[in-house]
Amino acid sequence: MTMKTNRCTGDCAACGKCKGANLLQEMNDRKTKLVQLPEDFRPDQGEGIGIAFDIGTTTVVGTLWDLSAGEHLLTQARTNPQNTYGADVISRINYCEDHPERFEKLQSLILQCLEDLASSLLKKAGRDKDQILRVVIAGNSTMSHIVTGHSPASLARAPFQPAYTGPVIRRGREMLSCMNPDGEVFVVPNIAGHVGGDITAGLIASRLKEKKDLVLFIDIGTNGEIVLTDGCQMLACSTAAGPAFEGAAIHQGMRAAAGAIEAVRIEEGTVFFRTIEERVPAGICGSGLIDAIAEMKKIGIINKSGRLLLPTDKKGDPFSQDIAGRLRETDGIREFVLVFREDQDDIVITQKDIREVQLAKGAIAAGISLMLQQAGRKAEEIQQVLVAGAFGNFIDKASAMEIGLLPDLPMERVESIGNAAGNGAGMVLLSMAEQQLALDIPEITRHLELATCDNFQEEYLKAMSF
86, 232, 287, 465: most buried, per Cβ within 10 A? Predict the structure, then answer.
């Protein structure tokens, strides 16, 4: 991979692009390039067109399909407009709980987002809204509750029971004006309180029900959903990973947009990086963050507890001059400089950033450990790890293993499967057989509530270590 060296001046000589280039904060991000259905999939729907929506906490993706041909026409994405009212689902639940007018605001925002996405897709495809005869919506549990008009308040407190179960099926006139009023809207059913219809859709796309070996499915996002199957049973859980892997809660974090540092390597004391679209570095996104911390761990500037070491902390062999020059303390905060910049603040990884990653990866690793314990299996027995989501598609597997985000397994056992939720929603849109599978999966999946596990805190604390 081509990477830039470690100093940025902000001019064209440094990046090869125009200094004033727009960093594209809007959500035409790389989720739109991950549409891929299983080879054995066969559509069985009729005429017209349809849209599959994947509603995430951070991003909403809409995919336009030709129902008769099973052909993918267009995909677009937008930032979830609810993010103004909280970066994670619990924040949004707290915002609208006991405030009907606030709940209506959140519902109105997401419905308008779907309308806008649909209108944009139709315009680009040269189609009319009356041709949209089916819409399928897959979202995490909170998003599914809000878009369908169900209060998500019960999801924020034990025992985290949903306000509704099963699918929601409505006519276009009842829910969306961007489609044929007689068309059908199908909201994919959730599996449990915090294991939503997006995971149901992801399991459909990954064909997890058909797996015979011990297989782990992970969707890494603001929530980390994990499903484990051994061919006889499916276990599912959800962990509160937080928004760190989305670039939020990180000092100079940003979404995976142009200019975001997406890959980092440290070789012989020199820091190399790559930015999305090879733009001037503007911040760091999740994949770059994992790379950076993995590399920092490997060269010994992060210890097992996650403490960022300064040159004065080092015993034995000192850090190289270049690395030592990047370690500093600013206003009492330890930080490591990734990119020196002349006209702006340097791009750094702070001690707090490292702690945020520890919390996120610890939650996911603890969930995996507890699921394996419930199944009576060991990590080394896992034959395949399926990493879903746009973020999972771009992380470096070796870096994820280095920091303990993924189990330490032979690299060939780990596979990134892209936007599985969006792909599964498309399959449900195009096939009544897959729609029936969407109804079946919640019935055959056993949910593990991690908060009720006696050893959760013990496993969580252990998993936070490097």
Answer: 287
**φ and ψ at 228, to 5 degrees?**
-125, 130
> Residue ranges per domain, the chain?
30-206
d(CA 361, CA 383): 21
Task: Give dist(CA 46, CA 430) in Å, integer.
Answer: 9
Please say whether the beta carbons of 17 and 278 come within 8 A. yes
Helices (H), 97-241: 100-125, 141-148, 172-175, 197-206
Q: What is the DSSP letter of 185?
A: E
Q: 432-444 and 420-430 helices cross at what angle (nearest 10)?
A: 130
Query: What would the DSSP string read from start to end of 53-117?
Result: EEE-SSEEEEEEEETTTTEEEEEEEEE-GGGGG-SSHHHHHHHHTT-HHHHHHHHHHHHHHHHHH
Residue pointed to by tokens 């070796």: 398
Q: What is the pLDDT of residue 287?
A: 94
Strand partners, 443: none
Radius of gyration of the chain (CA): 22
In degrees, rounded to 5, the angle at the alpha carbon of residue 79 between the alpha carbons of residues 179 and 69 is 40
Q: Measured between alpha carbons, how far is 297 from 289 in angstroms, rounded to an integer?
A: 12
Predicted confidence (pLDDT) at residue 241 exceeds the cutoff of 90: no
Question: What single letter denotes the amino acid at residue 252?
Answer: Q
The CATH homologous superfamily for domain 30-206 is Domain of unknown function (DUF4445) (3.30.420.480)
| Selection from 385, 382, 381 nearest residue 395 by Cα | 385
Q: What is the C-alpha to C-alpha distance for residues 294 and 302, in angstroms, rounded to an integer?
A: 9
pTM for this model (two decimals): 0.87
Burial of 275: CB neighbours in 10 Å, binned 0-12, 13-18, 19+: buried
Cα angle, residue 41 at apex, residues 137 and 375 outer, rounded to 5°? 75
Tens of pLDDT, residues 85-132? 987 888 999 999 999 999 999 999 999 999 999 999 999 999 999 999
